[in-house]
Amino acid sequence: MTAAKATVVDPKAEPSRALGQLLWDDSFVRELPGERVDTELDLTRPRTVKQALWSPAVLTPPGIDAGQGTAGEAKRSPKTICVSRDVVELVGADPKGLEDEEEKDKLAECLVGSRPLPSGAVPYAACYGGHQFGNWAGQLGDGRAITLGESVTADGRRYELQVKGPGKTAYSRMADGRAVLRSSIREFLMSEAMHALGVPTTRALALVDTGAEVMRDIMYSGDPRWEPGAVVCRVAPTWIRFGTFQLPASRGELDLVKMTADYLIKYHMKEFAGVPDPGKYKAVLDEIVKRTADLVVGWCSVGFTHGVLNTDNMSVLGLTLDYGPYGTVEEFDPSFTPNTTDLPGRRYCFGNQPDVALWNIARMAEAWVQADLLSLEQAKESVSSYPDMFRSKYDEKFAKKLGLEKTYSAEVLDELTLLMAEDKADYNCTFRSLARVDVSAETSDPDSLIQPLVDGGALLPSQLDEERKGKWAEFLLKYRGLVQQEDPGMLAKRTASMDAVNPLYVLRNHLLQTAIDRAEEGDYSEVHKLFTLCQRPFEEQEGVEERYGRRAPVGTKKVGVTMLSCSS
To answer: 3-state DSSP call for residue 226?
Structure first.
């Protein structure tokens, strides 16, 4: 069956040139079972969907749903705020075409549903379930995300283009299917920032102001307000999640579990297509375990805390998925969580992420066992390989961050992070500053030894008494001795090598909030500045103020800035 095309204001209008340049395909809806719907069905009506992996969807133009609960009127035309040229090119379009303001407007109109999509686009919303905060939540699905279709590039790569916030789907439950500007800015910018940091992630092609307002109660305090609405066009090879397998398995729809796994292999893990069946799914699960370990090590390396690490928010490709109330660790605290909803138990805090990822893998593996894709013993073998694999990758990454090849040990890292936690050292600034420690100096003076960390924003002198300075000096003398034992070649390139893995610029929540505050007033300059800044996070950029590489100023460390809710 074919999914519905988008409702549009002007059905005769030409689609955006950038989208029209793509070679569209619809393999997900063509090869996997979808919901069978009557032609008269309101596709935006929430409903339970069984024996299907997707439902036809329609983009609702801004303002069409005004007065329906929390959706507001359209007060201005849709406007493209920011475009990632890199992603436009990635999916097979010419980014030069979007230098024209008229074409950017057409793109915005396509992404919000007020201009037709190209003929090859087949919009749908995926059906999946998941464990949320450790509890089975049943059917979830794409409640405010609609996949437009797949772009197939000249070299055969596939990228699904998905719009987040274009209106209701079958899975919206009691929500309006919309997204607000603040959460959309955060997702657009961090998607591209994480890519530049070398952390596996979904990508973001465009950020669009819909021109309509949306009502949200930001902190669930009983004080809702109207906010600017927005959508993000985000991109991934596939949006299959752990929960995509869990929901049909929970319902006994075991054929759907196998069909999804076979689809994954056919289009996105082709290297396993030739593996004989008795070991094929075990090999795929092993790969998912490996990619997940790589992903979480990447998060740890830059202090990223996802905030809502439910099984429905984990990609089978090992990509950072669904940017909600995330945050970056500043004053080092393993129990840091940026999500106010997570505060009581801190299940998803920074230090718990490796273990939560393992728990989530096990829940997906259970679905595969139920569907007889592999035996319980095979699943246990795959899942149990994660801890050692994670630790090996973690140590390899942090050896580079410390500039230690021969002399690295987990003990020296533990000693450092204990000091960081005790003295509230800034996470990323600490690793960056260690590259500035003069390992050829012979001084043992505490003030001289810690000065590079003070200059680099890692330590605040006001928080250190003489005893604490002495503890840091003791560690730095030990660290200096370890570095001096490294090969001369390593010493010669030490600073450059460490700078290449220790970012100077990360998107801290207070910086994002400043950009959001200005954008809500119609000034997008700070959004563009952060977008440019995050493209080269490891390089000191000329003309950029020091504050962009430092911890949040006193007064900004509060709920609503450095800590957020799931309201978006």
So the answer is: strand
